[in-house]
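Model the whole thing, not chain by chain.
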Amino acid sequence: MANEAIAEKERNGTAILRAEGIVKQFGSKRALDGVSFEISKGDFLSLFGPNGAGKTTLLKTIATIVQPTAGHLYFDGESVTDRSIFLRAQIGFVSHNYLLYDDLTARENLVFFGRMYGVVDLDDRIDFLLDRVGLTGRQHDLVRTFSRGMIQRLSIARAILHDPEILLFDEPYTGLDIQATKVLDDLLEELKKGRHTFIMTSHDIDKGFEHATRVAILARGRIVFDAPKDAVDKDAFAETFWQWVDEK
Amino acid sequence: MELRTKELFNSMFLFALLALIIFNFAFAGSMPKSVLAGALWVAFLFASVLGLNRSFVKEQDKGCLEGLLLAPADRSAIYFGKFLGNLVFLLFVEAVSLPLVTVFFNRTEIVHHPLELAGILVLGSVAISSVGTILSAITANTKTRELLLPILLFPLMIPVIIGAVEITAYIFEPKGTIDQWLRLLVVYDIIFVLVPYVLFDYVVEE
């Protein structure tokens, strides 16, 4: 199934990101064991997998936080092995960790990261994003006073501050209440209109399917299923997913 | 963040001052000039460890190091930023401590050659900050980082402290020559600012 999907992409020829045989070894443990996939511009790839499958490691490898032990990563057809600085400018990452400083205010965090990315008209951009994520009224409050949902919204604002092409979300719905989930849903729908490319890991099959154009399963460090969402029956997919969870 | 919390400066400054007070009373207020040189550098070195231990804590504990690693820039910029921050904190602690020592302990030799003293403080502090910052990054991931950092740092600081004490004692009371110690400190600073620049990528990589 994974090979058929890659063949389809090659025919279409619009891959923005391509991974070939990505391996990541931590000591004797292989977190990624030859991951290969392609994702086209504008795609929303929902990546599912049991705990310990390597989802976070894969996202960190794409974000160049982690260097692969072997394999290659291509952005817009060019190898990024020697161009990781260029690739990082194209990526926004919403991680398990907030990547926000508790002792800074919401606005100060965005100013810090905005300067890091060289964002033009930074103040206007921050005003726009704070309004978009509903945090204008709390912009001068320290992040340590924020709820989980507010922190997640601010993390998204930080991730899209520099208007990256590729957005990586690592289980963004974890720990969110209903209101925060609704806000995140609306944000993702709006971001999708902007033709960003997304990779989102999730345990929640409903949420993953809701946003996805492609769905994939990562298990034991490998992509074991990869297909367009429209070609997949959700219930059958869920059954396949749980089989891999049980086999873990 | 430091301007808001003043956490680092307060702890470093108070420690340095307390150490110098103890040294002063240990010698019943008549500490020889050569011992004063050693006391100053012991106080500043131990105070710097307090600051260096906290250097990467906020990034490590809250995952903010990943945020910095995502920056579209050479990762050595993170090292240089931290190094300069630690250097500024240490120099500030020294700049505030020394006048107090001069006034309260009547150690006028400190103000006789301010430029020379400033020069050796910068040379010594650069060495402490450069080595301390890279070691802080290495130990930040460990559970026993507050114990491990001084264990790794102090042996590497031996040539720096000996050289700095010799030069400082010479400033207070010129005797003998210090050319070899000056050369040692300058070369040490150059090497231990450049080596972390090369190594930092490997230190922060998961």
